[in-house]
Amino acid sequence: MKSQHLCLLATVESDSHMWNLVYLQLWLGERGLEVKNLGSCTLVQAVLDAVDQHRHAHLLVISSVNGHGYSQGLALIRALRQQHPHLHVVIGGKLTTSEAQTRAVREELLAAGYDAVFTEADALDAFQRHLDDLAQARHSLVLGTGDVTHWT
Ligand code: B12
What we know:
Layout: E1 6-10, H1 19-30, E2 34-37, H2 44-53, E3 59-64, H3 69-83, E4 88-93, H4 99-112, E5 116-118, H5 123-137, E6 141-143, E7 149-151
Parallel strand pairs: 1-2, 1-3, 3-4, 4-5
Antiparallel strand pairs: 6-7
Helix pairs in contact: 3-4
The protein binds cobalamin.
């Protein structure tokens, strides 16, 4: 049976890395989310079209590792927020070319409209906690057999 919770997964338009997307697709799927992976080098317009097409999506995850995630991620969220102010959107990965620089741009990404930014070594653990909080807030938390939250 398909999950009622759809997650769109994308990257920025210059980023051709794909294993981060594959990893996250599997990781999110293991947590009970139905994932639509828009693939590498995702154009802003392709993300906007996907969000329009999947109005019931609960979450948009942007993953980028090539160093352009900060600048192109800003352009993406600014375009998206004009049309979709309420969709929950997170970004993570290697968003600049240094960890210090990425830490420095975190606030700007949040101010531009991302609901969360995950860039540290513990990004997946922090994302897991974020999903737990989100699931609880939506009153749709179902505990699985392990200690991870499952969306149903
Ligand atoms: C494989 C690889 C490539 C392959 C990609 C093949 C493919 N189709 O995917 C090729 C050879 C094509 C390539 C090209 C380039 N690459 Co490359 N690549 C790598 C490499 C070695 C591994 C990436 C990988 O697959 N990792 C496996 C996945 C599963 O892990 P991950 O990507 O780290 O993602 C994890 C986390 O980052 C995190 N995460 C990621 N996104 C998100 C999102 C959220 C929400 C959360 C919570 C977590 C999260 O969770 C993931 C799972 O743990 C890395 C170095 C490295 N060891 O990481 C460089 C690396 C990413 N590449 C790099 C660069 C610079 C390039 C090029 C620009 C090189 C060039 N000069 O041409 C091009 C860019 C191409 C482009 N247009 O994007 C740099 C990026 C620098 C930076 N950000 O500071 C890296 C880090 C190498 C380096 N140390 O310099 N690359």
